[in-house]
Amino acid sequence: MTNVDAGAGLDPVHPVAPPTTGPAGLTRAEVAERVARGEVNDVPVRSSRSLGEIVRANVFTRFNAIIGVLWVVTLFVAPIQDSLFGFVILANTGIGIVQEWRAKKTLDSLAVIGEARPTVRRDGSAVQVPTSGIVLGDLVEIGPGDKIVVDGVCAEADGLEVDESLLTGEADPVVKHPGEPVMSGSFVVAGGGAFQATKVGREAYAAQLAEEASRFTLVHSELRSGISTILKYVTWMMVPAALGLVVTQLVVKSNDFKGSVARTIGGIIPMVPEGLVLLTSVAFAIGVIRLGRKQCLVQELPAIEGLARVDTVCLDKTGTLTEGGMDVTGLKPLDGADEGRVREVLAALGASDPRPNASLQAIIDAYPDGHGGDRRPVSTLPFSSARKYSGAAFEEGDGKVAGWLLGAPDVLLAPDDPALAETGRLNEQGLRVLLLARAARDLDGPDPARGARPVALVVLEQRLRPDAAETLRYFADQDVRAKVISGDNAVSVGAVAHKLGLSGKAVDARRLPADPADLAKAVDRATVFGRVTPQQKREMVGALQSEGRTVAMTGDGVNDVLALKDADIGVSMGSGSEATRAVAQIVLLNNSFATLPSVVAEGRRVIGNITRVATLFLVKTVYSVLLALLVVCWQVEYPFLPRHLTLLSTLTIGVPAFFLALAPNKERARPHFVRRVMRYSIPGGLLAGVATFVTYLLARHHYSGAGALSAETSAATLTLFLISMWVLAIVARPYTWWRVALVAAMGVAFLFVLTVPWLQDFFALRLVGNVMPWTAVGVAVVAAAALELVWRWVGRRFPV
Predict the structure, then answer these.
(1) How many Å apart are CA 643 and CA 198, to the nearest integer?
(2) What is the model's pLDDT at position 581?
(3) By C-alpha distance, which of 296, 290, 299, 304 is closest to 574?
(4) Mean pLDDT for all residues in the chain
């Protein structure tokens, strides 16, 4: 049903409940009036930047500016063949824009699927609207796990507890009463209620924080920052080398002006690793598109990279290893309690909670409303992850008030209570057990559980996710440690973990040491933890990080929010609470834990392959700078025209790098990206540059006459191509059939250029005689052998 209350340009609202008995909320006319005044929660689009921003980011770069100026100059002073590098840059930039635009559309469509739809009260009915559909003065209903999306004032409260730690740093939940303010960015941990929106859109407290935290971005990653560092070093090397080359070619050598300009530009262009940033962006963008097809919303792109670096995954049991639903499989009255009366109390408890959790929902399904007799709730105590129980007080038929508690037996009972023995036996079977107890104290008091009398045990069976065991095996095979951190009974959690193939004794988190150093050691040693409070989850993530671990945290409940926020990578289920989806970097919209291996694999593909291709690009930069310096020192003509290096770059870097960057790669991501790349690029580039210049000097002594420079260039080009091909052959390891075919195809393409007359003329490449071509081959062979030895020595001498 479409409701005009949504206002012009806003999504329709959807009724979710019959008319309420509280305040009716805004009317249709009031909503339309506020929309007309612009008093709408027009929050910025969360997941993407605009097409204009994408174009500017890909076009207006420092290196594009350098290459663009040189291209314009080349178009005026040299043949079109020497301007090919400019057309390559145009094609690369176009590819980058198209891929990022595709990624933007994927993210936008997924963000709509995963968008929270708050419940507001209008004309006395509860309706769901998109976050952008909230208007000033709306009455917004909230319950456990709901994120408060705009600022407001509490209008109704039923045991309402709000966690404001993400805003204030205060760990303890704040109890809210009518008239007290609530801030956007906080979330409900217990109870329910409603608040009236007083600030919407960009005026809301957390709007700017949310915009910055959720925007589509390619920054703040080791890979991107490493490439930026490398480009900074490249710029420092380029400037003096290029200036020296300009002076040498235009002043020292008495060549014709146009030829000198062309060879100067030919020396500067290859110093720029222009395709490296492009390929990184394309690899990230394609990763987003691939994961989007699997219903995985990547809210921050570096999360793909981050999860690939993870060595520890902390898993919440409920909703991650087990499915959300549960079934009541048994009811065990204690101390002669009447089973019929127990069923009535359970039915009444279920009916008293407007937002039941999974456990209470199973009880409601087993004992529906109507079985609760004539019990009317006088007061309620909402479930809290910190308390581990909930409760309600009912007015019985005789007019007396009785308080009841439902929660964890080991929390509600004394350690020596005999009922715990039966609970332990059931937990060992992987069953979840709740205790129904008669309260001896007022539920509004400081400790309502003290003195509670056990009445019955409710046995619940959890449904294991069918793909959980296979996913855990994948992490084990990839040397990623899995740790189950749950608020449930430790024995029960341990039994579930054991069924899924995780070994190790379950640890009761209440017995963990408080000292951070001791906690870190205890958490690092064990695998399964039960009775973990939300604050402890956060502390355990921090403890693992203090041990040098890169931690991912998965969860779907409000009790996971703090840990998700602090983890290196937070992963939320799409069906999880609004708060968990808001703070997580990755949202599994299909609620499938089995999607995580795909995210890990995608991250490893990006990091491993970009490391490979970065080596190719930077070898070219190093030998280009070295050749420029050698030309300046020897005061000779630069050996190459732009067309020669465009051909070499295309065959030994551009085309192969594109395929290598998008190929499968299961190698575990390792740190120190800059060091890993430079330790191979520098020696590789130095050997290539020296060998090429040696061939060039030998050719200068061998050839003479009018066509000598062209013959010298051809011999030097042959040497440089063969060495670059060997670098490509090393980088392409380990070999597969398609990698071998790729390297071979590049070699055949170059051979084709050398043998087809019109291509020889087009690229100004013609090998003259037999002596120098074979000398060029011999120098390349010696340099390739030296490169192989140096490559292996560097790997042993400078491990990372």
Answers:
(1) 65
(2) 79
(3) 296
(4) 82
CATH number of the domain within which 183 lies: 2.70.150.10
731 and 623 inside one domain? yes
Q: Where in the sequence numbering do the catalytic residues fall?
A: 316
The DSSP secondary structure of 712-755, one letter per residue, reads: HHHHHHHHHHHHHHHHHHHHTPSP-HHHHHHHHHHHHHHHHHHH
Please report, in angstroms and rounded to a whole number, the separation of the first and last CA atoms in the chain: 60
Whether residue 551 is found in the same domain as residue 662: no
543 within a domain of the structure (yes/no): yes
> Could you tell me the two tokens for 121?
């009260």
Euclidean distance between CA atoms 187 and 534, whole angstroms: 13
Could you tell me which of 607, 751, 759 has the C-alpha nearest to residue 280?
Answer: 607
Q: Is the dihedral of CA 533, 539, 543, 544 positive or negative?
A: positive
The predicted pLDDT at position 529 comes to: 92
Structure tokens at 679: 């330790």
Q: Residue 267, SS3?
A: helix
CB–CB of 562/538 below 8 Å?
yes
Low-confidence ranges of the chain (pLDDT < 50): 1-22, 209-220
Both 493 and 551 in one domain: the answer is: yes
How big is the chain, counted in residues? 800
Q: Are residues 162 and 69 in the same domain?
A: no
What is the helix (H) or strand (E) element at residue 680, kind and residue range?
helix 673-702
pLDDT, residue 503, reads: 79
Distance of alpha carbon 19 from the chain centroid: 41
Helices (DSSP H) in 452-515: which residue ranges? 468-477, 490-499
Same domain, 679 and 774: yes
Pick the last residue of a domain from 214, 232, 259.
214
Beta bridge partners of 658: none
| Residue 714, φ and ψ in degrees, nearest 5 | -65, -45
Indicate the helix (H) or strand (E) that contains 15.
strand 14-17
Q: CA 308 to CA 302: how far, in whole Å?
A: 10
Beta bridge pairs of residue 405:
391, 437
Which residues does residue 315 pair with via DSSP β-bridges, in sequence order?
484, 554
Asked if 772 and 684 sit in the same domain, the reply is yes
Residue with tokens 């840990």: 563
Tokens (6 digits) for 87: 């057309």
Residue type, 235: T
Question: How many separate domains does the chain show?
Answer: 5
Range of the domain at 555: 296-321+466-589
Side chain identity at residue 764, one-letter code = A
* Same domain flag for 474 and 561: yes
Is this structure's pTM higher than 0.85?
no
